[in-house]
Amino acid sequence: MPQDVPWHGRTVHTGVWKQTVTGPRMVRRLNIDGDGQGDLAGHGGEHRAVLVYQADSYRFWARELGRDDLEPGGFGENFTVDGLPDDEVCIGDRYRIGGALFEVSQPRVTCYRVGLRMAEPRMAALLVAHHRPGFYLRVLEEGEVEAGQEITKVATGPEAMTVEEIDRVLYLPGHTREQVERALRIPELSPGWQESMRALLVQEDSGAGPATGSAGLNTAAAAPRPAWPGFRPLVVTDVRRESRSVFSLSLAAEDGSDLPAARPGQFLTVKVPSGEGGPPLIRSYSLSGEPGTAAYRISVKAEPHGAASRRLRDHVRTGDRLEVAAPRGTFLLAPGDGPVVLVSAGVGVTPVLAMLHELAHERSGREVWWLHAARDGSEHAFAQESRDLLAALPRTRSRVFYSRPAAGDRQGTDYTDAGHLSAASVADLGLPEDADAYLCGPDAFMQAAEAALVDAGLAASHVHTEVFGAGPSTTPGITAPATGTAPHQPPGPPGTGPTVSFARSGLDVPWSDAQGSLLDLAEACDVPVRWSCRTGVCHTCELALLSGSVAYDPDPVEPPAEGNVLICCSKPAEDTVLDL
Ligand SMILES: Cc1cc2nc3c(=O)[nH]c(=O)nc-3n(C[C@H](O)[C@H](O)[C@H](O)COP(=O)(O)OP(=O)(O)OC[C@H]3O[C@@H](n4cnc5c(N)ncnc54)[C@H](O)[C@@H]3O)c2cc1C
Ligand code: FES
């Protein structure tokens, strides 16, 4: 059963410590009696009910790691088995053991806890690199099972795709499209792995070239390649007021040449001069303008106490130069013919406005819904521009909600609804359930709108969101992860190494070799992070490297996409800006 284990000054709630048992045990759909998982997001559930590992792999690891202390259950498995090697067992195979019937659903997922259990931090990476992951079973018929029983194969999975092969497709370089398509023809493959396989195909179909396996693990790995490394100067060619608090800047190449085309939904990262001789402030802004290569447009809300946004508003003028990183991001309008729902609040309109521009530009016949929330007419940026774009499209529906309409605001002309864009109003819209929705606005708005869209029948995987900030953390199994603490300098004496800038958190930190990795540094600063294996396999920690370079130790199993970094196994080689 799960227990709390101290680790790096934190507490991990994990069921990876298994003990051998004698006598029969009842196996049920979700668990074996007396067994449990600590982190149900990563382990357990109907499709990951029973973990299997092979005695032969124990012999391999004893030799490979020079260990004589490995005991059954040591890899967190429920059944330690003779036979059933990963390169013979296929997804969908069925086995009878005692009174229960099992079906192979997926390989083990890589995670740091097996390394914690084995006192070998590299273990998650080694399991993949040596093609010995082990696998999960779902329970088709519940029944009693006892150590020593025969394991009888009763059916072979369709496509005869082995555990080892599918693990390689996802985690290691060099799979083929045919392999991914084969995997997707196996209904017995767990939904999580099916989603990863589909993500690989989407990446290939998006025209970005053959997907690396990691595109199935993290959307950051599927981001289009950045058009230039680091920052380059662009010149401000226009400054325009869009509403009481929002203004736009147009940015073009210094020599007037075309800029690389950006995808609607992408953002730029800008170095905003601080003006006091201090380091620049690094902030990101979604592109809001029409596609094309002449200029990029960003639109900024001057925040009441915002350092960079006010600096941009008060000091940046036409003709000024700004250092800008290439368009990046994964909040992209997916190609297709299906309905599109664009939902925004306040300045969150920027990336979805770029999408509306794209749809209008290509005279799309898609059904387009435009849902926008603003406080009143004076805060309604791009009111006329969005109306013009919608008018140019054949199949549109638009609803604009003013939470506090001003006296001069005209219902029916300036806005359609008084009040908030609430869950109830979304439910009443009659949105097409097969739509893709793109959502941007303040955190609370997005959470509510996302839930409302799913309640309205849209698939959760078709609701795409852009966060104008650091985003949520993923820290599997950590009890009471830090929340709400503002990012800060790490404790202890300041480092003397290159500067690491966390762009989304607005923090510059000198590197110190007291930190093991960029991930360790981010955690010491309470910068929100996402990770799982901490050893370069799972790509959960992959993110955009906006400028600079890193050195890897250990080398990742598969390198990140170009322009990205895996922060769990890297250190800065020079001043580095991370999209974190
Ligand atoms: C991918 C991405 C896309 C983005 N796109 C856009 C976009 O299109 N348009 C846009 O405007 N922004 C966008 N942002 C947000 C933008 O990057 C900045 O975070 C934003 O402009 C605020 O930066 P700032 O330096 O002005 O505020 P900061 O100084 O960083 O302050 C952050 C917040 O704290 C508040 N604050 C600061 N000091 C105080 C204080 N003393 N008391 C009370 N409150 C305080 C500010 O009002 C502000 O709301 C995007 C962010 C990301 C990550
Ligand atoms: S956390 Fe798994 S690759 Fe970094």
Q: Which helices and strands appear, and what pairs or packs with what?
A:
Blueprint lengths: L2 E5 L2 E5 L10 E3 L22 E5 H11 L13 E3 L12 E4 L2 E8 L4 H7 L4 H7 L5 E7 L1 E3 L5 E5 L7 H9 L5 H8 L6 H15 L25 E11 L4 E8 L13 E6 L8 E6 L9 E6 L5 H9 L5 E8 L11 E6 L3 H13 L6 E7 L8 H9 L4 E7 L14 E2 L4 H6 L7 E5 L2 H13 L7 E4 L32 E4 L4 E4 L7 H7 L17 E6 L2 E3 L11 E3 L3 E3 L3 E3 L2
Parallel strand pairs: 4-5, 17-18, 17-21, 18-19, 19-20, 21-22, 23-29
Antiparallel strand pairs: 1-2, 3-9, 4-8, 6-7, 6-10, 7-8, 11-12, 11-16, 12-15, 13-14, 13-16, 23-24, 25-27, 25-29, 26-28
Helix pairs in contact: 5-6
Bound molecules: flavin-adenine dinucleotide and FE2/S2 (inorganic) cluster.
